[in-house]
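Please predict the structure of the following assembly.
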Amino acid sequence: MRVLYFAWVRQRVGMAEEEVAPPETVRDVAGLIAWLSARSPGHASAFANPRTIRAAVNQDFAGPDHPVAANDEIAFFPPVTGG
Amino acid sequence: MRVLYFAWVRQRVGMAEEEVAPPETVRDVAGLIAWLSARSPGHASAFANPRTIRAAVNQDFAGPDHPVAANDEIAFFPPVTGG
Amino acid sequence: MTPRIAIQEAPFDLGAESARLTAGRTDVGGLASFVGLCRADDGLAAMVLEHYPGMTERAIDRIAQEAAGRWPLLGCTVIHRVGRLPPGAPIVLVLTASSHRAAALESCAFLIDWLKTGAPFWKREEWADGTARWVEAKAEDDAATARWAPA
Amino acid sequence: MTPRIAIQEAPFDLGAESARLTAGRTDVGGLASFVGLCRADDGLAAMVLEHYPGMTERAIDRIAQEAAGRWPLLGCTVIHRVGRLPPGAPIVLVLTASSHRAAALESCAFLIDWLKTGAPFWKREEWADGTARWVEAKAEDDAATARWAPA
């Protein structure tokens, strides 16, 4: 599973992307956030307030209940501010 | 009094502008239209249907009741179609 | 804000006009433009545009000032071509600059809607078969202008 | 209608992009554009834009297709710059072409409203005093996007 981080989520986690292999109990975006939060103080800081985090699964916006699987590309980032 | 004609009003009247000196009984735009209509068959044709004619007095749109005076610039034209 | 208003036969340059509104300043956040072009409807050979010199500039200046009173504009350009224009030719340009995008977008739409009904221009269509006819005013243009009227 | 979508560090050329949508055709009656620029609010040194390569282009392509389904578009261009941009620099360009002006104007406003809330871009402001902060999403941008939702 490939995980990407953008903007201040990337800065707090301390990396732009990583390959992870969470246990099978991690089935959705919310579960992945909980699992990633335990990986480092940086991860914990990035995901401290899940309300400020948005996610995409395979490049589509995805809510906390969206399923995640081994070959997915998952991205975490703040609310977007383009335009 | 200077009278200007535009678009098909100009074509029907047969000229772009003329100096006229209507009698004192011609006091407003509607009166001027009636008086001009009698000047030639072209004028009569141009003003045959007053509902299709718009007017400006001294370069501001003006309705049939708008007063007209000796030194005014009066223009007659169809509804505008710019842009 | 002094609007730039031009009535001309020559083409206009959208890039240059846009640069003119933003050059040397850093307070413009949004620049909206509209360009109206001559469509080649079924055998149209050319569009011939006539206007009322003097009144045209006055009327456009007045409406640009009204727009500046309704939206916080930092710049406004209106260029309207006259004369004989072939199909595909640009006819009219409206450009508005503001610190915020909604003001730029709305004032641009307001100005082009108004130009259709409030500025003394007239269009004659010349056809490939040699005939010509004056374009008639459209009720939908009056409706578009009316939606900007104060409630 | 195939939209032209570009994410790039380089500046864009409004005149050239506009010409590209109308060149060689005579069915375009209206061309609307919006350019968003970097404002120099109180000591801003630069804006740094980051995006999600791949997802950005997909998301913009999808919304351009949605716009083409809602309005009869003849052309659509979206160019969004990324990287470090100084105050005064153009950031984003939206261009829409249609046979009628309302379709061009409305779809242009729709697309720029959507880009503020639906495309994966993030802005960081760098200040003259050396500090930096990520721009926070605005509730007013969500509201602007929401007004386009089907009733």
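The two ends of chain D are 26 Å apart (CA to CA). Residues 101-118 of chain D form the longest helix (18 residues).
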